[in-house]
Every structure is written in structure tokens, then in C-alpha cells.
Amino acid sequence: MPRTQYGVSPWxxxxxxxxxxxxxxxxxxxxxxxxxxxxxxxxxxxxxxxxAAGVKVALLEADRLGLQGAGRxxxxxxxxxxxxxxxxxxxxxxxxxxxxxESSRRAVLDLAAxxxxxxxxxxxxxxxxxxxxxxxxxxxxxIKDAALRxxxxxxxxxxxxxxxxxxxxxxxxxxxxxxxxxxxxDPYELLVAFAAGASERGAMIFERSRVKRIxxxxxxxxxxxxxxxxxxxxxxxxxxxxxxxxxxxxxxxxVQERYVVRTDRLSATVxxxxxxxxRLITDTEAPAHVIRWTADGRLVIAGAxxxxxxxRIKRHTLVQRTGQLMYELLRTYPPISGVVPTHGWDLPIAxxxxxxxxxxxxxxxxxxxxxxxxxxxxxxxxxxxxxLVRHYLGQAEREDAFFAFTRG
Length: 408
Fold this sequence. Notes:
10-stranded mixed sheet; single chain; alpha/beta
């Protein structure tokens, strides 16, 4: 029986050490057209997008690429910017809501195509099911959400309890909404591939190069790293959430901890008992769970969001939340009784008030672009990278404004 590894990402753990990126520290003084701060998925995808567009770009990561959040995600590509279309439309109107949801759906397909060109084999696209399983959830709200999506021209289909049970394998399913164009991947493999692709196209990538200060001048920006200074026309902040460098912008997001568990391989007997057809399942709980079936017969469940815990109780909380998620997974799939988790880990996330990421400029910070609150979702990170490069090139599209700080 395997022993559970706590605080360890299975994607990083399984990745061959000989293939892990090892980029140099930045030293000296250099000039670039654009400097990216943050070496997670958004940072690496943005470096790739800028380098592919012919921009002289450098990326600075304080530690090692992908080890803080990006390589610790559940590896789910959400084909929507937020779980509730109803709430987004109520806040921003139908035009903006439709643009947000259509852009996010296309991002999954575009990322999958780009990943295949780079030789990434772990990216798969599937429909997902949002299952109504708990009697605490209001069925009418889910039906209303699907109806509003259809009225806006977004593909959303409600399925009855029998179909939901057959496709999800969840015996208590009372119905479900089919969600088009979601996906799954190994997030660390994806990050490594895009970082390598960016480097091959001329991007300079520097690890262990913490940014200490960013100074905005009249016509450019100075980025002061631990061992040198970079000058750039534009600095692009891809740190997932505001750091101490941007304390005044912390009001835009709330920070939490999400927890993720991966099980051991399920036996063929257990898989037959569950007989799930859908590879990606989410629910209507608060907070919601996301469950993915991996190609090698494991289950990954993410959820149990809560406030970030101090370091002294972090380990205890991680063990407790791993047990909680395994219990909730067992309630969803009773045949997994006796299956143990191989990994249980935490994931720092930031979310905006409406659940939608921010990508673009901020009026108080000239020569800056930002991408925050992507929740380490590879599809949202990919979409953010495209929005950022369009802003830099002066080619912003109409839908890009819906992801801006000014959307309300």
C-alpha cells in the first residue's frame, strides 16, 4: 500500500529530474522590450507568446519555474471563466458575460492545439458535467443558469438524473449540466514545454532572480532584481496575485488555499463498478469540487478551499483536508472504499469578486501589464498570455476589455 506524500505535487514528483528546467540567475544590466515577473504558467505562456511575436523579452522567477503554484494545480482546463454564468451576467450584462465565456471556451481548444505543436501529449479535451448531487443545492438555479447560457448563444445542455448518473457514475445525481470544451493535462509538463519553446524563440529566462523593486520612469521601467537591473519598455506582472510590490492593488483579489488529492490507480473492478463516462466532473457545492479521471486510472479531486493557514499548522491542516477530500470522494464514488491517496497537497489561489481573472493594464501603473487570479488554470493562463501580447502590440480585441480591471 503506498504511503501518502503530503505537500508534494505528483506532476513535479514524477517528472524526470534530468528534464527539469535549470535556467541561470540574472546578473548585470540589460535592456529588453518587455520583462515578465513570475515564472508560473501565465509567465511562461506569456514569454512564449511574446517571443513568438518577435518581442525581445525576459522572464524573472524568484525561485524555480512552476514550483510555487503552477506545477501544483489539479491540471483541469476550465472552459468557463467562472462557475456561475447567471452571476456574471447579472453583474456585467449579457454582452460581457457572453464574451467572457466564449473567450474562455476557445482558450481550451487553442491551448490544446498549441501544446500539441510543442509535443505535449498530456493535454486532452473533453466535455465536463456539472452534477447536481447534494439536496442542499437548488435544482432550479442550475436549470436557470443553463437557460441563460443558451439564451446568450452558449452551448449548455441540461441532462436528467438517469443520464447524469450513467455518464458521471455518481449514484446520487439529480441532474447535470453538460459543459462543452473543458480539458485536462499535466500542468508541470505543460509549463516546461512552453518555457523551452519560449527560450528556443529567443526569450531569456532567469530563475532564482527575485525582483526587489520596480521603478516606473517617464518612458520605460527599471526592474531591480537581486543581482542586477533590467530596463524595459513594459513590465508584465504574472505573479498570480498582488505581491508586496503592489500592495495598493490587493483589494482586487481575495487569497485562499485550495487542496488537491490524487489517488492510487483504481483496479479494473472498481472502475467497472463506477462506470463513469465523463472524464471531468464538477458539482454545485460551495466550495465546488472538481474531479478528473486520469489516463492511467487515477482520480484527482480539488476543493476544500479555505483561508491560508500559518506555517505552524500548515502540515496538520493539509493532512486534515486530504482526509476530508478523500471522504467526499468516497461519498461520490462508494466503490473506491479502501483506495488510498498517493499525494495530498495545497495550492495557493487568488480570486476576484466575480470569479473572473484580470488581464491587461491598470490606470495607476503606466508601462505595466498584469495577469492575476487565473487560479492556476492552464486555459485561463493561456488566454491571459494572448490578451497581454495583444495589449503590448496595440492590437487589443473587443473581448479583452471584459477581463480588464475596469469591468466593474
